[in-house]
Design goal:
By secondary structure, the chain is mainly α. It is 64% helix and 10% strand. It has one domain. It is extended.
């Protein structure tokens, strides 16, 4: 699951998003992430897998935001931050 998420995020970095289609595409024009891909995952891996992928996305987002906040607090904010984010 983690490898799939890493591959999808890497392809999003190298691609583009079309708002009209609600889909991410690679530079070659191939669909990377969208409703068709989510439907494929649901049909082949099930609802439990999608729930786990959602939790992993939330964890990764929270982790990245904490790291950003930690760096921001140390470099720009003068070092003021709560104790739980200092670790």
């Amino acid at each position: 699951m983690g490898r799939l998420l890493t591959a999808v995020l890497r392809s999003m970095d190298q691609g583009f998003y079309l708002d009209q289609m609600s889909t991410w595409y690679e530079m070659t024009g191939e669909q990377t992430w969208g409703l068709r891909f989510i439907n494929f995952l649901h049909e082949n891996l099930g609802t439990t897998f999608l729930q786990g992928l959602d939790k992993l996305c939330c964890y990764r987002l929270t982790s990245e935001l904490r790291a950003f906040y930690r760096e921001y607090g140390l470099q720009i904010g003068g070092g003021n931050m709560s104790k739980d984010l200092r670790d």
